[in-house]
Amino acid sequence: MLAGAVFVEFVFGWKGMGLLMFNALERGDLPLVMGCTIVIASVFVLVNVVVDVLYGVLDPRVQQS
Fold first, then answer.
1. Which of 3, 35, 42, 58 is deepest in the core (most CB within 10 A)?
2. What is the residue-level pLDDT of the chain in tens, covering all 65 positions?
3. Is position 26 within any domain?
């Protein structure tokens, strides 16, 4: 998913976190790359947790343990 964002933003010239990461990799700015990776991973984990909780709320067949 992350590689797709970088590729799409680079090809179309969109200014986003993917292009920021690509430019940081070209410059060798590893702290920026690590920060972007942590932000994207955190958002990914947060969205997964929210979806799991919503499954339990919306579908009574699913039990939360």
1. 35
2. 667 777 888 788 888 888 888 899 999 999 999 999 999 889 899 999 999 989 888 887 877 66
3. yes
Q: Tokens at residue 9, please? A: 């933003």
Give me the phi and psi of 7, to 5 degrees please: -65, -50
Q: What is the pTM of this model?
A: 0.72
- Split into its structural domains, the chain has a count of 1
Give residue 34's identity as a one-letter amino acid code.
M
| Single-letter amino acid, residue 4 | G
Q: What is the CA radius of gyration of the chain?
A: 16
Two tokens, residue 44: 């990914």
Residue 50 inside a domain? The answer is yes
37, amino acid identity: T
Range of the domain at 6: 2-58
Helix-strand-coil percent breakdown of the chain, rounded to 5?
A: 80, 0, 20
